[in-house]
């Protein structure tokens, strides 16, 4: 049996890793030039920052075991930030006892570890799929029809993108289920600022959750283990505000975020910065189906939106889907 997987984020990679170990003939298609999806790091001329997922937690014993393997292979480590909370009026110390992990030396490292020896076709944006005579035919925006048919298709991309991808597919009730799921997941964007201040910020914290403001998260990126010795910061705007302002000009979004940061005590004046618009950053189904599969149509879906909306859920979604497929064939 050969399987095509669309998307080399942590869900697609976790699914692929498990199936690969069982000897399945796998072909992964990824629109970016690297793997790891939203567990990502942006490289500037002399500095880099994790501009997607900031850290991950590991509550499920199976995922914790995986994280231990990552740590013993030096691609992840615990991160113990000096963590604060701003409630809209005052600063409080966080009493969270969660263990937080990060990829090392950057957030893409666990994904790159999983991707080793997998057959990944980069720079391939899959923009159409067809199920004909029991075969899956897939089309890439960059190279047209892929010259191979597949027995089974796994879609490991965000809900809204999955919904668009299968728009022309009418088999079973897959399309209506995914469209219902996608609407319920209600994925939202995230405006992100990456900054290198002109001098070190005189602030006694490494990261903060911000409530009741445009900004929802601020983090000193170089407080994470194995980062460059250059002070860099990341600022995320909250999902509601980001979604409302998702189509505004990048400079306007950046200015509004900088003003808000300044108001609550982060003076980034003169900082070198860049801005990123995540169109599909967060959102998930409240009832946690983990994955969706149709054995009749030979298509399945995995991703964070089906399993709690975070790194751990994405990995578990891919893993549980792979186990389901393996137990069926
Ligand atoms: C700003 C931000 C902050 C976050 N913070 C945290 C956090 O602190 N902790 C946490 O646990 N999680 C966080 N998350 C969420 C976390 O990043 C995700 O839950 C997880 O990475 C999702 O993995 P995934 O594999 O499901 O999806 P993705 O990572 O989105 O992977 C999907 C992959 O599919 C590719 N793709 C999409 N469409 C196509 C196509 N048509 N053809 C081919 N390839 C395609 C994409 O390029 C991508 O590589 C954050 C996310 C964002 C954006």
| Low-pLDDT regions | none
Structurally, how many domains make up the residues?
2
Distance between the termini: 9 Å
From the coordinates shown, what is the CATH architecture of the largest domain?
3-Layer(bba) Sandwich
- So what's the overall shape? globular
CATH superfamily membership of the largest domain: FAD/NAD(P)-binding domain
Strand order of the largest sheet: 7-6-15-16-17-14-18
**CATH fold-level assignment of the largest domain:** FAD/NAD(P)-binding domain
Work out the helix count: 8
Q: Give the beta-strand count.
A: 20
* Chain-averaged pLDDT: 97
Write down the Rg: 20 Å
Q: Estimate percent helicity.
A: 25-40%
Structural class: alpha/beta
Oligomer state of the chains in this structure: single chain
Strand content: 25-35%
CATH class (first level) name of the largest domain: Alpha Beta
What is the chain-wise order of helices and strands? EHEEEHEEEEHEEEEEHHEEEEHHEEEH
Can you summarize the main beta sheet?
7 strands, mixed
Outline the structure in words.
The structure is a single chain. The protein is of the alpha/beta class and 329 residues long. It has 2 domains: 1-40 and 107-185 and 285-329, 3-Layer(bba) Sandwich (FAD/NAD(P)-binding domain), CATH 3.50.50.60; 55-106 and 188-282, Polyamine Oxidase, Chain A, domain 2, CATH 3.90.660. The protein is built from 8 helices and 20 strands. The strands form 5 sheets. The protein has a 7-stranded mixed β-sheet with strand order 7-6-15-16-17-14-18. Strands 9-2-1-13-20-19 form a 6-stranded mixed β-sheet, with helices on one face. A 3-stranded antiparallel β-sheet has the order 10-11-12, with no helix packed on it. Strand 3 and strand 4 form a beta hairpin. Helix 1 (10-21) packs parallel to helix 8 (311-328). The longest helix has 18 residues, at 311-328. The termini are close together. The model has no long low-confidence stretch (mean pLDDT 97). Flavin-adenine dinucleotide binds at residues 6-12, 29-32, 37-39, 52-56, 125-126, 156-158, 161, 165, 190, 192, 236, 278, 281-282, 303-304, 309-311, 314.
């Amino acid at each position: 049996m050969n399987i095509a997987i669309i998307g080399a984020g942590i869900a697609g990679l976790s699914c692929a890793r498990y199936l690969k170990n069982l000897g399945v003939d796998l072909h992964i298609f990824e629109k970016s030039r690297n793997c790891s999806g939203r567990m990502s790091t942006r490289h500037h001329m002399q500095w880099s920052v994790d501009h997607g997922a900031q850290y991950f937690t590991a509550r499920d014993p199976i995922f914790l075991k995986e994280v231990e393997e990552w740590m013993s292979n030096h691609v992840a480590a615990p991160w113990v930030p000096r963590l604060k909370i701003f409630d809209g009026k005052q600063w409080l110390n966080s009493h969270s006892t969660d263990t937080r992990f990060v990829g090392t030396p950057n957030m893409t490292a666990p994904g790159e570890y999983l991707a080793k020896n997998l057959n990944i076709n980069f720079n391939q944006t899959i923009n159409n799929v067809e199920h004909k005579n029991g075969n899956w035919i897939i089309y890439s925006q960059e190279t047209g029809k892929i010259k191979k048919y597949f027995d089974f298709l796994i879609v490991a991309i965000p809900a809204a993108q999955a919904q668009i991808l299968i728009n022309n597919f009418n088999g079973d009730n897959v399309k209506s289920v995914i469209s219902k799921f996608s609407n319920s997941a209600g994925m939202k964007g995230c405006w992100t600022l990456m900054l290198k201040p002109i001098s070190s910020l005189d602030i006694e914290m490494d990261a903060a959750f911000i409530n009741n403001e445009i900004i929802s998260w601020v983090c000193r990126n170089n407080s994470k283990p194995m980062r460059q010795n250059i002070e860099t910061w990341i600022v995320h705007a909250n999902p509601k505000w980001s979604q409302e302002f998702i189509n505004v000009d990048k400079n306007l979004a950046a200015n509004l975020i900088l003003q808000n940061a300044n108001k609550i005590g982060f003076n980034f004046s003169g900082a070198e910065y860049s801005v990123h618009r995540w169109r599909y950053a967060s959102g998930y189904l409240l009832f946690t189906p983990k994955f969706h599969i149709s054995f009749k149509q030979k298509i399945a879906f995995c991703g964070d939106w089906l399993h709690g909306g975070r790194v751990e859920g994405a990995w578990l979604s891919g893993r549980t889907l792979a186990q389901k497929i393996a137990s069926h064939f």
